[in-house]
Design goal:
Blueprint lengths: L16 E3 L9 H14 L6 H8 L4 H12 L7 H13 L8 H10 L4 E3 L6
Parallel strand pairs: 1-2
């Protein structure tokens, strides 16, 4: 592999690179937690942001819902998940890449190293 002339210097040999999403390519955890907390409060479960973040980090949506039920006896209304999804889509439209992420992906593409995202995040 030849290092590109601009962007991050890539050395060594890679068959491919697998990236996590949150905290590596984008920083969406705080944004997601804020959407969750605001929507939960509107649906009968006010929680401090820190409490929610503690139970949700690294979890899937279904696991977060199970934990909310176990810890708080809360069950989502029929409107909860559609509202949450709409708000996530709107919030993530403005999500910026972490500094250097775009240049790294572009450098990998230039030298022909395939890459993908492996994440617990929703699509």
């Amino acid at each position: 592999m030849t290092a590109p002339t601009d962007g991050p210097a890539l050395t060594g040999t890679f068959d491919a690179v697998l990236f996590d999403l949150d905290g590596v390519l984008v920083d969406s955890e705080a944004l997601a937690a804020d959407v969750w907390v605001r929507t939960l409060a509107e649906h009968g479960l006010p929680l401090p942001l820190n409490d929610f973040a503690h139970l949700a980090v690294g979890q899937t949506f279904p696991n977060v819902l199970v934990r909310l039920s176990e810890l708080h006896g809360w069950t989502p209304t029929d409107a909860f998940l559609p509202t949450l999804e709409t708000r996530f889509n709107a919030a993530f439209d403005t999500l910026d890449a972490i500094e250097g992420a775009r240049a790294t992906l572009e450098a990998l593409r230039r030298v022909g190293v395939p890459f993908a995202v492996g994440s617990n995040s929703e699509r």
